[in-house]
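Fig. S4 source data, part A: sequence.
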Amino acid sequence: MTARVKGPTDHVVIVGAGLGGLSAALRLAGAGRKVTVIERESVPGGRNGLLNKDGYSFDTGPSVLTMPDLIQDALSCVGEKLEDWMELLPLKPLYRAFYHDGSTLDVHAETGRMQEEIRNVIGPDEAAGYGRYVDFVTKLYKYEMKDFIDRNIDSPFNLLTPNLARLIALGGFRRLAPKVNDFLKDPRTQKVYSFQAMYAGVSPQQALAIYAVIAYMDSVNGVFFPKGGMHAMPRALAGAAAKHGVEFKYNQTVTYIEHSGGRARAVITAEGDRIECDVVILNPDLPVAWRELLGRTPPSVKRLNYSPSCVTLLIGSNKSYDRLAHHNIHFGKSWDGVFDELIKKKTLMTDPSLLVTVPTHDDKDLAPAGKSSYYVLFPTPNLSADIDWKVTGPKYRDQMLRTMEERGYDGFADSIEVEHMTTPLDWQNQGMEQGAPFASAHTFFQTGPFRPRNIAKGFENVVFAGSGTQPGVGVPMVLISGRLAAERIVGPVK
């Protein structure tokens, strides 16, 4: 039987209006609970933040939206329809991959179209291997989603289902890269269908094959972009929640959870408010929530290993490039070497692979007329590395721009009108442990039943949501975490 919070549950306070907190709020409102959401920023979103500057509108967090059904699932709890709150644009292609040899590969969700692309760029044998790979990840998703992702797990024994045997037989517990290579023989396709391991904080050589489910979520199921930018998603969720009675308190910072006798009693804010409640959901990064709001940190949380970090440049520019898609991945010649540098050596990439997202490719309103916006992401080590970002940051910014020009962005540096840089130190200052926006890594012993539970040990009525708890990292997972948190309080919600 799944553990639940004890005692009354009439009034739930949610700390943080990130996607996990918003997902939980909608479900609890639909279940008839009084819900109060306290958010330190002036807008909802958490890591899915917003920056407006000189006519440009920038998303500061995730740039890839997959599994929009999960958004509809949350809205359905209060009887709302996604299309009444958001306009989603399917991206075609999902990604454009650029390789060191000058070749490119467009990634499509439709299997037939993707096979045609691979056949034209690489050859028929690789296209046939891709078809078999799609069959593999589709089965993986089917067996994995219900029993291993989309449910509360209290013990490894919860995993003893028929689907566990199916996953083992499928090869889900082999290493990701060798499993992908069973189907795909060309380094270009191998890279484009294994880079998602970065989201999980491990290299493709070390990640379990079950993480190919991330590739299913985007490269097979599809990638979308909300009209108005990624921040349209938390705006929609918060708007629907407010319509159905959820109270939002913005520009208020929670400093402590008052508790006694193993129960949270009230939420204390820096502004001097004391808000009594029956249950608390904590949406901040898990170790931060423990340390700063609950006043202690369990040993299991202290021992967590964290994913690599990244540096992002948000650029407003007077220059555009016809060869770009919405999402552009530039792979360096090195691949295994990149992960070795980031994870083992904890050094900056010598042969960078990078993501360049162009939001104005599909929504011109995000920039002044005739201008373009760019979201540039370079993976880096987290703050456990010996890198002083106060010193390194400006130099690395220049290096990033040089790399982009080397990769074909001629005149990019001179075209910049607006820019905003975020380093691992900035991520930490925003409340992300070790400056890691991808939270704790999905190593074997930080995955599934071994990932920190979403119900706080030692407390009867404190629950966690977000990427640091079950099921893990990424927009789909965080939305699910909100539902799992709500189910700890009111049981299954529809």
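Fig. S4 source data, part B ends here. The chain has three domains: 11-51+67-78+228-304+440-490, 108-222, 308-433.
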